[in-house]
């Protein structure tokens, strides 16, 4: 009876348990590192998407505004680009250059995105040499740059050109 009992109740030896723990450790450590790397890359992609969407949101809003206060030349002087007198918040901005120098962060417009800062720059541009350059005189073209920054990720920058809309007479 004792022989039958020993054959039916077989367990693992201490050596087998130790070998299993070593093999499991060798397999699980790289697996955990791979999963961690995948998670990091997914977070990076999510943050870049959020940053790009924040930049595009501001760019679309700016491009919905008029080119300049003045419908025809002479346009606003480069030194005067920025909010006009009496334009104290975004709802009063009526042309694209009012956004020049606008800095948005957690304390004002980006309350849902506490780690982000969004800056906007508007300048006159020239493309006469098949190259986009900033110029220090009024032209019929403005370069709009929206930059979204985060302390842990590279900046995202969206650049657009906006031309004067002239009425043909």
Detailed description of the structure:
This protein has 169 residues and is an alpha+beta fold. It contains 2 helices and 5 strands. Strands 1, 2, 3, 4 and 5 form a 5-stranded antiparallel sheet that branches.
SSE inventory with pairings:
Layout: H1 2-8, H2 14-63, E1 103-104, E2 116-126, E3 133-135, E4 141-150, E5 153-163
Antiparallel strand pairs: 1-2, 2-3, 2-4, 4-5
Briefly summarize what is shown.
The chain is α+β, with helices and mostly antiparallel strands and 169 residues long.
Instruction: Please write the string of helix (H) and strand (E) elements.
Output: HHEEEEE
* Proportion of helical residues: 25-40%
Radius of gyration over C-alpha positions, nearest whole angstrom: 30 Å
Oligomer: single chain
By helix and strand content, what is the structural category? Answer: alpha+beta
Q: What is the count of structural domains?
A: 1
Please report the number of helical segments. 2
Poorly predicted parts: none
Average pLDDT confidence is: 85
Measured distance between first and last alpha carbons: 114 Å
Sheet of most strands: 5 strands, antiparallel
């Amino acid at each position: 009876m004792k022989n039958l009992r020993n054959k039916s109740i077989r367990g693992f030896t201490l050596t087998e348990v130790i070998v299993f723990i070593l093999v499991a450790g060798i397999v699980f450590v790289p697996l955990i590192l791979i999963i961690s790397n995948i998670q990091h890359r997914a977070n990076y992609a999510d943050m870049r998407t959020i940053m790009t969407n924040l930049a595009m949101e501001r760019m679309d809003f700016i491009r919905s505004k008029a080119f300049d206060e003045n419908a025809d030349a002479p346009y606003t002087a480069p030194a005067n680009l920025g909010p006009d007198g009496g334009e104290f918040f975004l709802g009063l901005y009526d042309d694209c250059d009012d956004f020049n120098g606008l800095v948005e962060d957690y304390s004002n417009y980006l309350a849902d995105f506490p780690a982000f800062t969004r800056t906007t720059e508007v300048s006159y541009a020239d493309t006469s040499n098949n190259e986009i350059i900033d110029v220090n005189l009024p032209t019929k073209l403005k370069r709009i740059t929206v930059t979204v920054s985060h302390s842990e990720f590279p900046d995202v920058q969206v650049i657009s050109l906006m031309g004067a809309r002239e009425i043909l007479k």
